[in-house]
Every structure is written in C-alpha cells, then in structure tokens.
Amino acid sequence: MKDIVSQLVSRYRRVGEEKMRGLPPFNDRLEVEAVGFSEWGDHLLGVIVAPWFMNLVIVPGEDVDPEKTTQGARSEWEFPAGRYEFHAANLEGSPSHLTTPLFSAVTDFPDQSTARAVAQAVLDGLFSQEAARAPEQVRKGSGDVLHDATMTRRSLIRRVMLMPD
C-alpha cells in the first residue's frame, strides 16, 4: 500500500514542479501530500493535497471493471455521506486511480497543516454516523440545516468545516 501511495505522491510532485509551479492556481504554502490513505474494502481511499487542488482518491482493487479505470471514465461510489462521481486518472508512472475534486483551487489555504486537517475531516465525514442519517436533515450545533436529502460533495465539505468539536 505504501508503494502505491508513494508512487502517486511522487508523480503529482513531478507534475507540480514541471507544469504547475508559477501558474495562478499554485499555492506555494502547500506541498503534495497523501492524507489518510487506508484500505477500504479491496481499494485504497484517501485524499491527495497538492498546491493546485485537493482530491478524494480511490485506488481501485483488482476486482474493479477495467473500463472504470480508463482515462476519463466516470463511475459512482457510495459512502454513508452519499454517492459521489469519480473520474479515472492515469498519470505516467503512477497507478490508475479515481478522483473527485474537493477543492479545485486551494489558494485560500494558509498552510499545509490546515489543508491536511480539512482533508482528514472530509475523510472522517464520509463515514460518520451523522452523515449516514441521510436523507434526514443534518444540522450543525446551532441547529442550522446543513443539508437536506442526499449529501452533495459541497454540503459534505461545508458540514465538515462547520461542525462543532
């Protein structure tokens, strides 16, 4: 597992250095990091934080239909927090993986520790008991409704960011 995640991180670092550094969406306060990768059934699940994005990532196990891992292919995956659409990504020198964006721009993150904390909170939120209550209304501590019906990626992130400790 560590080898697969290391390959992903290495490849994204290379993309950052060769293609993204110096472009407007690049946040010099961040670095490429794999957050919270762990086994999820036959797959690996975690978040890749990069200076230009933050994506939820699945490295599919061998039982996944190969068509789902063809560059650009779409597939839906079910979590207690809801159903999310992923797209296949095939970077040279890294394993095939599926991604869904959490933040397509990370310019507002002040530092790596904040980005890491948000990534971990999103992972925790995917499997939280509260998220599993959907389609009931999920509320933050003040009682404000954070989502109604199925949880979208945006409402999951909003809920994670606003949940009381």
Alpha carbon gyration radius? 16 Å
Question: Order of strands across the widest beta sheet?
Answer: 1-2-3-6-5-4
Outline the low-pLDDT stretches: 134-151
Order of helices and strands: HEEEEEEHEEH
Coarse shape: globular
Fraction of residues in helix: 25-40%
Give the count of helical stretches.
Answer: 3
Annotation, overall tally of beta strands: 8
Main β-sheet description: 6 strands, antiparallel
Task: Tell me what you see in this structure.
The protein is α+β, with helices and mostly antiparallel strands and 165 residues long. It contains 3 helices and 8 strands. The protein has helices at 2-20, 112-126, 153-162, and strands spanning 33-40, 43-50, 53-59, 74-79, 82-89, 97-103, 138-139, 145-147. It has a 6-stranded antiparallel sheet with strand order 1-2-3-6-5-4, sandwiched between helices. Strands 7-8 form a two-stranded antiparallel ribbon. A hairpin with a 2-residue loop joins strand 2 and strand 3. Helix 2 crosses helix 3.
